[in-house]
Amino acid sequence: MIEIRDLHKSFGEKSVLRGVSMDIPYGSITGLFGPSGCGKSTIANILCGLEMADSGETLMNGDILSDPSFYDRKNGLRIQVVWQQPHASLDPMQRVVKGLEELIRYHHLAEGKEGVQQMASDLLTSVGLAKEKGRHFPRQLSGGEAQRVSLARALALSPKLLIMDEATSMLDVSVQANIVELVRSKMKETGMGVLFISHDRELLDAIADRIYLFKDGRVSLR
To answer: pTM (2 decimals)?
Structure first.
C-alpha cells in the first residue's frame, strides 16, 4: 500500500495541499477527482519525486518514501506516471522502439542486444501495438497510440503504483475506454495499484474502486 500522510505544499503564497492524507491499495484503482488546475497533479509530482512537500510524508509498504528532506529514489522507480500529453513525454527525434531499448539498457532490465530487442518488442505487444509501430517516430502516432507507448514505458519498470494523471482526457471516448481497459487488465495481471487522477467524475464512477474528492487543498473519501 502507498500511504500519504498530512501533506502540505505551497507555491509562494498559494497553498495547494492542506493536510492531504490518502491510502492507495495495491490491486485496485483509486480515483482522485477535482476540477482542472486545482492542484491534483502536485500529489502525483510528490509521489514520483518531482517535487518535495513542505511537510508530511509518503510511505511505501510502511517505509518512508518521501518527506520534506528525503526521497527514496530506488523505491521511487516503482512509481510510474502516464501524463496527459503523451507526445510530450516521448523523444520526437527517436523511433519508438529505440526509445524503449534505451530505457531497458539504462535500467539493466534485459541482457544482451537480443534480450533488449525482445523485451522492447514484447512491451509494444503487451499494450496492443503492432511491431511495425515501433519503427515510427512519435509524430507518426495517434494520441491513443502514443499513450500506449507511454504506458509501455511505465510498465517496463514493473511499478507498484501506476499514476494516470489526466492520461485519457485528450482522447476520444472509444480510445479512452481501450486505454482504461488495458490499464485494468495490467493491474489484474501484476497486482499493482493505480491512482487515476481526473476531472471526469463520470469516468471515475465507472472505473474506480474508491474515489477521493479534492477541494480547496484537501481530500475526502467519497
So the answer is: 0.89
